[in-house]
Amino acid sequence: MPLLVAGEGSGSLAQKIAKLTSWPVSNVEFKTFPDGEDYVRILAPLKDQDVVVVQTAFPPSRLWKLLLLLNAAEENRASSIRCVVPYFAYARQDRMFLEGEPVSARLAADCIRRYARNCVTVDLHKDAVAEYFGGACQNLSAAEPFARELKSRGVDLVLAPDAGALARAREVARRIGVPHDHLEKKRISSEVVEMAHKNVEVKGRKVAVLDDIIGTGGTMARATDHIFRQGASAVVCAGVHGLFIGDVVGRLKNAGASEVFVSDTVDSPYSRVSVSELLANALVAPVRTSLQR
Ligand code: R5P
Fold it and tell me: Could you count the other beta carbons within 10 Å of the beta carbon of residue 110?
């Protein structure tokens, strides 16, 4: 039976996966030395184990903790190593935009691949990142659990804050059975985003704004403000990955949001949608397949 390893900040997600799969979970001892170096120790025997490390990569320093955990599994002679990285950091830098830059997403994938035979993740910021795993990455969509949650709130329009997020909004809207559209976002700086006008009929509607990441909340706040000015009756802000940099919820409430929620890819008090079922199904599938052989 596979052993789940509960990474830092991913303990509750690992427990939810454990409940669905009936697999055991190992806790991990985490320490930081005075010089800032990380120490990890998986508190379960690993020899000949099929190990699944569950470690989110936010804050991005957790990417390093993930590698330490994968290395611990290998050094302790696990028979098989897989990982779940519910939020995959560095996915924005999926290519070299300017001369002299690294391709950070490929570096992260290369390091993970060095140890893990498979990586399961959710709503990668750029789908292309999965290709850096050479077929060994499952990029799961959280559309279904978000559709369920938004439907229960009576949302009657799903908006993407920009064209890049349109496919997700379309997919969620299709599942709920409501229309979708997108706004046009203009990024002025890393903290300032302007929402350009687009003729979206929002008047009198309960609108959900759905994005992959809620970081500083700038994108969502602009979208919320814009939608209200166009006459929406209510705005629900939803993001797959809630990074919540600064007082994001206050910022969104000030902009008029009636509710803010995210998934548990990064655990927070606003993690109202769980991706555990998606992850459990993806992890169990190869076991089922090999049992059927
Ligand atoms: C950008 O392309 C992403 O999809 C999100 O819109 C962005 O990361 C959100 O960041 P923030 O909350 O800081 O505006």
Answer: 13
Q: Do the bridges between strand 193-196 and strand 206-214 make them parallel or antiparallel, or are there none, so unpaired?
A: unpaired
List, for residues 41-85, the tens digit of each pLDDT value.
999 999 999 999 999 999 999 999 999 999 999 999 999 999 999
Q: If you take atom 5 of ligand 1, which residue's CA is the nearest one?
A: 213
**Sign of the dihedral through C-alpha 60, 223, 249, 193:** positive
Does position 125 have pLDDT exceeding 90, yes or no? yes
Which among 209, 219, 252 is the best mutation to test ligand 1's pocket, defined by most ligand atoms within 8 Å of the CB?
A: 219
| d(CA 215, ligand 1 centre) in Å | 6
172 C-beta closer than 6 A to ligand 1: no
Nearest protein CA to atom 1 of ligand 1, as residue: 213
Please give the Cα distance from 103 to 97 (Å, whole number): 9
> Is 216's C-beta closer than 6 angstroms to any atom of ligand 1?
yes
Distance in Å, CA 110 to ligand 1 centroid: 25
Chain length of the chain: 293
Of 32-41, 132-141, 161-170, 197-206, the least confident? 197-206
Q: What is the pLDDT of residues 158-177, one digit of tens each?
A: 999 998 999 999 999 999 99
Answer whether 0.90 is exceeded by the pTM. yes
Give the atom of ligand 1 at the shortest distance from the alpha carbon of 193.
14
Which positions ≥6 away from 242 have C-beta within 8 Å? Answer: 214, 248, 261, 262, 263, 266, 268, 270, 271
Active-site positions? 185
